[in-house]
Amino acid sequence: MPLLHRARAAAMTALLAAGCLAASLPAAAQPWVSPVTPECIQPGPLLRYLVVFSQLTTPAMADAEITEACGTTTVYYPEISVAVATSPDPSFLKLIGPQRAYSAQAESVKRSPKRKKDDTELLRPSGVRSGEQWDMDLIKAPAAHEVTTGSKSVVVGVLDSGVDARHPDLADALAPELSAGCLTGKPDTTPSAWAPTTSPHGTHVAGTIAAADDGRGVVGVAPGVRIASVKVVDDEGFIYPEYAVCGFMWAAAQGMTITNNSYFIDPYLFTCQSEPGQRVIYEAVRRAVDYATSQNVLTVAAAGNAAADLSRPGRDSMSPTNGDAQTRPVDSTCVVLPAQLKNVVGVSAVESTKTKAGYSSYGLGAIDVTAPGGDVRSPNGCVLSTVPSGYDYSCGTSMAAPHAAGVAALIASTHPEADAVSLGRMLNVQAETLACPADYDLNGTGVQDAFCTGYSEYNSFYGHGLVDALAAVTK
Asked: Cβ distance 265 to 164 under 8 Å?
């Protein structure tokens, strides 16, 4: 790239960082855009970047800076001043600024990644009966359905690995016109972009929320509501930040009521705001969630299956997920995304005895409510739900979160005037109080497997308590 182009890019970066450019450039003016020259294309892989701009940066200004840095804009979200860009130039990150851009792909190339392991537990069923849905009984869903099964005006976005539109339990609930794939960071409404490919996870989650109450198969928490498939999990099992940002922005644009997020954002279990690249991830995702909340979309997210105290994590031995994990110290500036963000309902998991599942992460202030996630060691095992071409059992906080999202959908159905903040508050208030267990020795060794803190109405294991579908439609 010519030196003049690089100098102009650096100058524009400095102006944006200082907040000066927006003030000096009239809104209608078109900034000078340099063409990408042959010198700009250097022999590197074409990588995708998440770029965070100062607030109120116009699309033209963002595109100009990306072009100057030898990149191409894939999409720009002016509501949150975040872009997704691609570039084959190894200097792109340096030109934009490592404090303002991040590429999970670039880190993946360095690490020669393997496919990410799904940390939920899958068990094949011997048969399918709705009576096996102990989880629905636990949250009083059958009793709630005698009052209402939910409203078609309520839409739950399933931000996951895709939903099987042909499954008989889901076909009537799924809204194809509201579905999209987000694996480039830009919404793609082509049906193949939001259909499941390598993972049954999203279809399982969708069934827990809204599987039809038709006397066959399984029944969801809110079988009368609609769902949208928003694919944010790629074929290697990763949920990179640009996928999630796209998902939240799409949900907001389509006026969805709730999103379910049964994942943490790769490649870090804990995203640390003190690290330059991770700070970009945190800021972009935070902006997207906050914007979705401002558009009255309630975000529900799984706490994770690391059995970690999220309020005092101490160490992270699972990151990076797209390479060889290294044990590293983490402090209070390091959080699980999106579960620990301010405007998110964080959900832990309980087994059939209403005891925190051993794998479930927890933490005072991190958990808002709890819901059935099952446990292979529990008398009733895992959660039964839909998967492409059938049914399956699965355990995890990934299974707990859609129970909470489904109950929130019932609340939204009976309180159509409620905004996102009010929905979250009612979900908390109507939960069944669960006190800290007197003894949490799961394997009988005489040693406590985790320590619950707080009081009966609000504690680190269960937050405000177990979600209650009946209360959602009667209180």
From this structure: no
